[in-house]
Specification:
Elements lengths: L1 H7 L5 H11 L3 H9 L8 H18 L2 H5 L3 H8 L6 E2 L1 H18 L22 E2 L18 H16 L6 H29 L4 H12 L11
Antiparallel strand pairs: 1-2
Helix pairs in contact: 1-3, 8-9, 9-10
Length: 227
């Protein structure tokens, strides 16, 4: 949303903005390139190079997001098997996200006192960052004998409730997009669990595969459905 706000703020016509959004869709790397083509950047060379690498890395992952969001064993179990001994480094990934957001804040010309502090050029620009240490981190791998992603559903639910009810220092309107993001992922995982349950209760496998395709191929998450 921050990058889209930048494009809306550079003085291009409404028609040009619509063309950019239709052409780039949700590709943050392409959106940032469209933004920099319309303005003079206020970033240092280090900040510019870092954010471009970070957004490129993010989009490499997002291009395969249906494979990561819907880790169905019939399709992805062997692909994700390579990550069975690795965990996502939650702290490092979060710090890189915050740094990226801080750079976008600078482009938005938010006062320095209100921006995320500092820029570390040595921080990794990789979107996915791994570690062999499991405590406090999470795994992409889910074995066939796993709990059907229950812990992920519970985690998204608890995080949403915490953000809505407990983070009183943040205005409700400032929480909106974060809460919607969490709820969207909660719905996705709920649909995944439902499909697993269909298999457990004897629904034909071909029926399951058809419904898997219906979810994974849906580009607009707001129109996600199960036929």
């Amino acid at each position: 949303m921050g990058i889209k706000a930048l494009i809306c703020d550079v003085g291009v016509s409404k028609n040009k903005i619509q063309q950019i959004f239709l052409g780039c869709k949700h590709d943050l790397y392409m959106l940032f390139e469209a933004y920099e083509a319309e303005t003079t950047l206020v970033l240092t060379l280090d900040e510019y190079n870092w954010i471009k690498k970070y957004l490129f890395s993010l989009e490499k992952v997002d291009a395969k997001s249906s494979q990561i969001c819907f880790v169905f064993p019939l399709r992805m179990i062997f692909c994700l098997f390579i990550y069975r001994d690795e965990f996502l480094d939650v702290a490092d990934m979060a710090n890189s996200m915050l740094q990226a957001y801080g750079i976008i804040q600078k482009c938005l010309q938010i006062p320095e006192s209100a921006r995320i502090d500092g820029f570390d050029p040595t921080r990794s620009s990789d979107f996915l960052q791994f570690t062999s240490y499991g405590l406090g981190n999470c795994s992409l791998w889910e074995s066939l004998s796993g709990d059907g992603f229950h812990k992920q559903v519970l985690g998204y639910s608890l995080a949403t409730e915490f953000l809505f009810y407990e983070c009183n220092e943040i205005l409700q309107q400032d929480k909106t997009f974060a809460i919607l993001f969490l709820l969207r992922n909660l719905i996705e995982l709920g649909l995944k669990r439902m499909l697993y349950k269909l298999i457990e209760h004897g629904v034909p496998r071909n029926f399951f595969l058809a419904r898997e395709e219906a979810i994974c191929s849906t580009e607009n998450y707001g129109r996600m459905y199960v036929q």
